[in-house]
Input
Amino acid sequence: MRISTLGYALLTLLAREPLSGYDLAQRMKRPLGFFWQAQHSQIYPELADLEEQGCILHQVVMQEDRPPKKLYTITGAGRTILQAWVTQPPAPPPQRNELLLKTYAIWLADQALAVDLFRTQEQLHAERLALYEQIQANIERTSGGRPRSHEPRFGDYATVRMGVAYEREYVAWCRWMVEQLQQALES
Amino acid sequence: MRISTLGYALLTLLAREPLSGYDLAQRMKRPLGFFWQAQHSQIYPELADLEEQGCILHQVVMQEDRPPKKLYTITGAGRTILQAWVTQPPAPPPQRNELLLKTYAIWLADQALAVDLFRTQEQLHAERLALYEQIQANIERTSGGRPRSHEPRFGDYATVRMGVAYEREYVAWCRWMVEQLQQALES
DNA sequence: GATGACATGTAATCAGTTACATGATTAG
DNA sequence: CTAATCATGTAACTGATTACATGTCATC
Output
């Protein structure tokens, strides 16, 4: 009877437009995948669940050039439930960061290998940052400045803004780590 | 035969000092809990596993004023395995942030309730930030400036530094969210 | 005698990933 | 005919949380 966070994630997407399970799986890679992922194996059963609870409905749509699909639509009840959930404070998320775990033990490591590790991480996060900045610029361009908070696009903009801030700090921290580790190599 | 991330987390702690399962559970709350948590129900079986694989050893220690405990010590083999793991690039972690999910759907919400949500989040992260800054100051004070990368304390310092940067950005983003939402209320 | 910190375990459940399984349709 | 995309499902496994379970010792 309870809706899982994944359930709300699917409702969040369906509140914007009707989609098939396959479509939802695509969107759970991107853009939602930046902060909430799910495989299709988790999505299909969840859709059955949501439908049983009356949050969504589906109709089979025949297509000419592709196999038929089930198109899911959010119901009024689903929208109401989603709306109530949106402003409920989320439970503090369990933080799990393996790189920080490794950082905690970095004193044990070969310092040259440690430098490599953080250089690689810096690059990965710099790439992520570039991607987010591009998405952000894209939104600003296509919606004529910043979207307002009552439009769906505001969600895209606000989340990517967080992504940019996060990745910027991550890159800066990796650089600082490299500096610290190199000081040890020099002496 | 494979060691889980939790296993490495425990080795990371045992590389600093011998500890009991109970002690480890405490440290998995803090300081490690800031980036990797585990309950005692997960720790005890994992310790048995690590011992079976020869990474750790235990001896029962009788105490006068407390019940007896199993004191675990890292072995040479354990230390070698840990050392190799530390500089291996971690798999990209699955990002899951329920607040960003809600943010993505915030256009559906009552704007006044949305403001409350982000004000509350701002406060939570401001508290976290204050805690991290205090820990950071504490390390700087007790180790006479910044620890160097070959000392265990460097791990404490480097991780808390990331925590400070992260929470600062989080607070700033929450404030920005409140601003955006309030603009909608005013008009 | 009750509460709380110390101490160690197991069992049940849940969320999520990986693997298994099938089939339509299009483009090369 | 083969590979890629579209499309939908189930099964097995893993990591983690919550609940169950027991017992010591000190303090109030």
In short: The radius of gyration of chain A is 21 Å. Residues 4-6, 37-39, 41-42, 63, 65-68 of chain A lie near DNA strand C (CB under 10 Å from a C1').
